[in-house]
Structures are given as structure tokens and as C-alpha cells.
Amino acid sequence: MAQTAKSKVQARARRTRASLAKKSRGRLRLSVFRSGKNISAQIIDDVKGVTIASASSIEADMRDKLKKGSDVKAASEVGKVLAERAKKAGVTEVAFDRGGYIFHGRVKALAEAAREGGLKF
Questions:
Q1: Rounded mean pLDDT of 43-72?
Q2: In the chain, count of helices (H) and strands (E)?
Q3: Residue 76 CB neighbours (<10 A)
Q4: What pTM was computed for the model?
Q5: DSSP 8-state class, residue 51
């Protein structure tokens, strides 16, 4: 059976989340989603099944600020905004869930901006 690109990403995402579940020690999860046109991230409490904070390049104020929603600049801006919203919600430590994406480019830029904003992971 030939695997499609989508099924490979989904398999990597499952593997990443399984690893996070073992190592997270009850921390909230910072989950990243990247598409061809946008990037978004959210902090999730898996125990309660609730999203604590979220940010996306689709938001109106982000669209005004950014030329494109799918570049490294947009990703770092989303990371900064997410870190600010997490601080307001009282979150400082998270487990970074890159999903099925490789940790480079936009995903790495978002993570570094969130770290600079005060999130620890």
C-alpha cells in the first residue's frame, strides 16, 4: 500500500502527540497548524478539552499587518501574539506540538517567537 503525503503527515502527528503525552508531565499543549496560505497555533488543555489561547494569520488585525499569511514573518508574528494571550491567561509552560511538520521554517519561527514572548518549552 502506497502512502500519500497526507497520510505520512498524519502518522508523524500521531507519533509526535504520543511522545508528548508521555513527556509533557501535565503541561498544556501548544499545537501548530500550517497550510499553504496561513499558519495558526493554539494552547490546549487536553484534560479538560479546552482551548486556552489561540492566534492565527487569518485574524483581521494580522491580515492588515502582514503582506502574506504563509511566510516566516507571519509565523513569528503569530508566535508573539500567542505568547501575549497565553500570559494574559496565566500560562507560562507548555509542551510544543509541531504536529506532523518538521521543525524548521515557519514552525521554527513560530516557536522561537513564542519563546521570546515568554513561553517556556
A1: 93
A2: 4, 4
A3: 21
A4: 0.88
A5: E
Mean predicted confidence (pLDDT) in 25-40? 94
Average pLDDT, the chain: 93
Considering only CA atoms, give the Rg of the chain. Answer: 14
Conformational region of residue 75, where left means phi above 0, alpha means psi within -120 to 50, and beta covers everything else: alpha
Beta-strand runs (E) in 27-91: 28-34, 39-45, 50-56
Long-range contacts for 95-98 (Cβ within 8 Å, ≥24 apart)?
95/20, 95/23, 95/24, 95/27, 95/28, 95/29, 95/30, 95/121, 96/30, 96/32, 96/121, 97/16, 97/17, 97/20, 97/29, 97/30, 97/31, 97/32, 98/16, 98/32
- Which domains are assigned to the chain? 5-116 (3.30.420.100)
1 pLDDT above the threshold of 80: no
Tracing cell 491567561 back to the chain, one arrives at 89
